[in-house]
Write a structure and sequence with these properties.
Layout (H helix, E strand, L loop, with lengths): L13 E2 L6 E2 L51 H26 L39 H17 L3 H16 L6 H13 L3 H14 L4 H14 L2 H19 L4 H5 L1 H18 L1
Antiparallel strand pairs: 1-2
Helix pairs in contact: 2-3, 2-4, 3-4, 4-5, 4-6, 5-6, 6-7, 7-9
Length: about 280
């Protein structure tokens, strides 16, 4: 029978002459010292077993160990990316607000000074550097009047986001009043109207007209709400009542009619225009 050659047995382990540990192969796995048959990685000369340096070229005789790959942390890059995104968002937001012309911290958006407020006590002209009054020190009536006039000014300038910023303050101020007159309800309704709170504006108009069905400001506010909600029939009915109530109501010389002369004049002009077009 033919016998198959047996597999060669692995090289027998010998003691490392440098550290004494069992070693096989050309370099000691424990200390890296060269074993019998090892060659220098620089000059390729044969190394003496256990030597620390090549006696041919002087290079270190220990086996070169591959440097373990250093894992770099991604954290610095993540932080840098987040910082860049944050800066971009801030710049983009600033540009967006400026494009709409309504930067909230601009001096033009400060609360109105008394001299610019049609209900405030006129004060000597103040420099531009004078800061806005502290509304926390005002009476509830003063606070609501200042906020109302400021919001109407911002609305006339098309600064919608600024209106939305100040409107909640104004509406809260009205709720803090001990009692609310028809004049104040009209103002509250106008603030709600320009802020987009149409149901609240309608509630103020309904309350005014429930107590006084011919009140000009109540009719004007109700007509504005009907126009915004697209109720053409209700709008024409209210405008007809408004025109009919003009003379008897103005004869009463109410204080609120004097304060809102422009609103009344504009409301009557719009009513006559709508009624004329509907004929």
């Amino acid at each position: 029978m033919n016998s198959f050659p047996s597999n060669p047995s692995p090289e027998a382990a010998t003691a490392c002459p440098a550290c004494g540990a069992a070693a096989s192969g050309r370099f000691c796995a424990n200390c890296g010292a060269p074993q019998e048959g090892a060659t220098c990685s620089v000059c390729k000369g044969e190394l003496s077993a256990g030597s620390k340096f090549c006696h041919h070229c002087g290079s270190p005789a220990a086996a070169a160990q591959a440097a373990a790959p250093v894992k770099s942390s991604p954290l610095p890059w993540v932080v840098a990316a987040l910082a860049l995104l944050t800066m971009f968002a801030m710049l983009a937001g600033r540009g967006f607000n400026n494009a709409r012309g309504s930067t909230l911290d601009a001096p033009n958006n400060a609360l109105p000074q008394a001299g610019l407020d049609d209900r405030g006590t006129p004060q000597p002209e103040q420099g531009a550097a004078t800061r806005a009054p502290d509304i926390s020190s005002m009476s509830p009536q003063e606070r609501t009047d200042r906020l109302f006039n400021k919001i109407m000014l911002l609305n006339s300038q098309g600064k919608t986001d600024s209106v939305q910023f100040f409107a909640p303050m104004a509406l809260q101020s009205y709720q803090m009043l001990p009692s609310i007159t028809a004049d104040q309800r009209y103002d509250m309704g106008r603030v709600a109207e320009v802020a987009g709170a149409i149901p609240l504006a309608k509630a103020q108009a309904d309350t005014i007209l429930k107590k006084d069905p011919s009140h000009l400001l109540g009719l004007i506010l109700a007509a504005r709400v009907a126009s915004l909600t697209g109720d053409k029939t209700q709008l024409l009915a209210l405008e007809k009542r408004l025109v009919a109530a003009e003379k008897p109501e103005l004869a009463k010389k109410r204080d609120e009619y004097d304060r809102h002369q422009d609103d009344i004049a504009n409301g009557l002009a719009q009513a006559r225009s709508d009624l004329g077009a509907a004929r």
